[in-house]
Amino acid sequence: MEIVTRVDRPDLDEIAAEVFRERWPEFIFHDDVPKKYLSRVEEHFGGYDIVVLDGGAVVAGGWGVPLAWNGSVDDLPSGYDDAMVRAVEGHEAGTAPTALSFMAAAVSSAHDRRGLATVVLAELTRRAREAGLAHVIAPLRPTWKHRYPLVKMADYAGWTRADGLSVDPWIRTHQRMGARVLGPAPRSMVIEGTVAEWESWADMLFPVTGDYVVPDALNLVSIDRERDRGVYVEENLWVQHG
């Protein structure tokens, strides 16, 4: 296997994007914060945007952002969006980063169960340590949380198997690497759109105003037909590696 950055191999951009896109629901790609900040993330933090190749084929990838964090739970960003904003604006203001936040990791569905997500996370961690960053954190989007959209993240994070590890596969992956749960990221992503847009993103109808269970959404989606607005506030889970 070979690990490269997307800066080194811009020819892989489209293929890598396909690997990432197949792992997330459509509505995730309509968060306004990445639209405003992602180009600056790519400009500033290309060394933390990696692709794993096997025989020349893209099999996995992941990226993170360096940001200032004092190590306390109270100083954590509110989630994914806030971490991106803090990283970009901190960099542009000349604030020295102290932590790397994993933002996403994905494995091609054709290469599941090979431990490739761990390879991605380990390489990002290595780069963070090499850069002198003291902390590695992540606002996780637990794999099975969408099955329990009425359950609070803090409660879900406490569900364990007989071996003491989380019932959730993605949380377990991080735990096996030594990560510990810090607590919920209460406002990790906020996605707004018209009712028609949400019906398209979710591939379902919203006939009346109310809160809906939407496939692959970790929390309920609030639909207001009178205002022609749908709002989804996603709660994630902060973990820390070392």
How is this structure best described in words?
InterPro entries: Acyl_CoA_acyltransferase, GNAT_dom. It comes from Asanoa ferruginea. One of its GO terms (molecular function) is acyltransferase activity, transferring groups other than amino-acyl groups. The chain is of the alpha+beta class and 242 residues long. It has helices at 13-21, 32-44, 80-93, 116-130, 153-157, 169-176, 195-202; strands spanning 2-5, 49-54, 57-67, 99-107, 135-140, 179-193, 210-212, 221-224, 229-241. Strands 1, 2, 3, 4, 5, 6, 7, 8 and 9 form a nine-stranded mixed β-sheet that branches. The chain is globular and about 55 Å long. The model has no long low-confidence stretch (mean pLDDT 94).
Summarize this structure briefly.
The chain is α+β, with helices and mostly antiparallel strands and 242 residues long. Helices cover 30% and strands 29% of the residues.
Strand content: 25-35%
Secondary structural class: alpha+beta
Mean pLDDT: 94
Task: Tell me the total number of β-strands.
Answer: 9
* CATH architecture heading: 3-Layer(aba) Sandwich
Order of helices and strands: EHHEEHEHEHHEHEEE
Instruction: Please mark out the parts with pLDDT under 50 across 5 or more consecutive residues, or reply none.
Output: none
* Total domain units: 1
Helix content: 25-40%
CATH superfamily descriptor: Gcn5-related N-acetyltransferase (GNAT)
Cα(first) to Cα(last) distance is 26 Å
Radius of gyration: 18 Å
CATH class identity: Alpha Beta
- In CATH, the topology is named Aminopeptidase
Q: What's the helix count?
A: 7
Main sheet makeup: 9 strands, mixed
- Molecular shape: globular
